[in-house]
Every structure is written in C-alpha cells, then in structure tokens.
Design goal:
about 70 residues, single chain, about 70% helix, mainly alpha
Length: about 70
C-alpha cells in the first residue's frame, strides 16, 4: 500500500486519533475510513427516507431475506 501525506490541523488529527482509540486503537487511516463509510451509510438512509417508493422496495427485499430459510450443513 502506498502512503500519501496529507495536511490536517492538529485539532483534526486529535479528533481522528480519539475516534481511532474509541474504535479499539485502530490506525488513524482505518478510523477515517470507518467514519467515511458511516457517513455514506447515513446519507444512503436519508436518500431512502426521501423516496417512499425506494424505501418500500428496500423494506420488502429486506423482509424477503429475513424470511429466507436455509439449511446450514456442518
């Protein structure tokens, strides 16, 4: 993996470091990736809330998956 240096304020760096610690001491770049993923997920939920038809389709599909009965073979 190549590394790129980015410049952030010490306040921003400390915030990312605090988040990394809350996440169990993960590396700062991992904490940032998690924060960005969570933001994308929240935005996706907001888009669904704004589109009742899409929300209904999502809920119907989620219900289908929840009701799926699959045999587990050890």
């Amino acid at each position: 993996m190549s590394q790129t240096t980015i410049r952030v304020s010490s306040e921003t760096r400390d915030s990312i470091a605090a988040l990394a610690e809350e996440l169990g001491g993960v590396p700062l770049d991992e904490a940032l990736k998690i924060a960005l993923w969570e933001r994308a997920a929240l935005l996706a939920v907001e888009r669904l809330k704004a589109d009742p038809e899409a929300l209904a389709e999502y809920q119907a599909e989620a219900h289908e998956w929840a009701e799926l009965d699959v045999a587990v073979i050890d």
